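$ fold --in a.seq
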Amino acid sequence: MPVPFNFRCRSKGEFTELLRAWHRDTDEPTIGDTGTYGRQQWLWVDVGGLELHLNADTKRVGVERYLERVARSGPEQPWYVVPNRNGRINRVAPGVPEPIAGFYLYSREPLVAPVTV
């Protein structure tokens, strides 16, 4: 099952189930069509009043690492919005305040300070 473009999840649990099904049922290298621009906002999830998006170029190994964190701490584990590599506070790190390599989850807008959702 491919991840539908622009699909909006209503919870961390729904987001996790969609990624789990994608990982189990496909062999795609990324969650979306990367075309000529891999940073396309592909999958949305609303958490704690924030609109978050997973980019199309999120890799299978990144999803695997996310699912490993969920297996240890559950889908409702805290998510941390932390600075990205350019210093903008918009990178989302599920479970621990360390982003997952290959898992490109961001807040729609940069924040003024790191938060936990």
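$ fold --in b.seq
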Amino acid sequence: MSSTVDRSEILPLTPEIERATAERYARVAHVIPAVEWTLAAPYIVEIDRLKCERNAVILAHHYQSPAIYHGIADYVGDSLGLALEAAKTDADVIVMCGVHFMAETAKLVNPEKIVLSPDLEAGCSLAESITGRDVRLLRERYPNTPVVSYVNTSAEVKAESDICCTSANAVRVVESLGVSRVLFLPDKYLADYVASQTKVEIIAWHGACEVHERFTPDQIREFREENPGSVVLAHPECPPDVLAEADYVGSTSGMITWIGKQRPSRVILVTECSMSANIAGAHPNVEFLRPCILCPHMQRITLPKVRTALERLAPEVVVPAEIAVRARRSVERMLDLEKVPT
């Protein structure tokens, strides 16, 4: 059974709930099995009610489970998209269905709002691969070298950085600084990809995403052989030899845009596999083949936990003021860059 619903507390499905969610389910019936929707629907109705009571907005990453993504999210996106939505929402409460650094980022751009993370243990191998002290030591070793931090970092690390980036805008951020060399952290594979796209020298930290680093070129070649005519799309957090096997390399949002424009008949998405199920809802004529690796941290967010968070207004994400002021500056510099036409 999906991790979307915990069997420890199953709410009853009533005819009223079935009617209230029927239209929503009809749009995603080819993605979410009926038995799973039966378990999810009562939570979806409860969460809808609590959202109204709390004046809350739910932001969900593309790697969330389909029932969360299609059932309760007000906005879905990649790290950059969610940061942009968080910055402009007028809701009193933000529920981040994603990992902890995403909730911290939402708090940084909304210091006066309540930001909830349904599970504070939903972490990230990249964010945990580097500390603020590590960044300070890097600055000592490479004086006068700007620090570009992937948003997949803690607020403490963002506070020690000059500007943030996402996989969608990393090259643009690096080149916007107008320097010949930058420190780029923490993802070594994204750093390799950025280095291949720019003349700026990239000094990389050696962190990696525990999902994307597990893909191998042999795996991709095997998928191609078994599924002739497939188009391979890969995320730049994958190792370089995996990216070399891909037909397109891009961020989560970049892959979605590419599929929408090119409309291939058969796609292999080399990224966290919840994304395939989620975007399949908008592309029923595309066959998604999944070399599937789930992010265990993303899967910690469940419908029961979202309901509980809205009921209790907890767990609340708090960033210490002395860190928040500096971290907010690096995030806002990235967001300001997004307002400048390319």
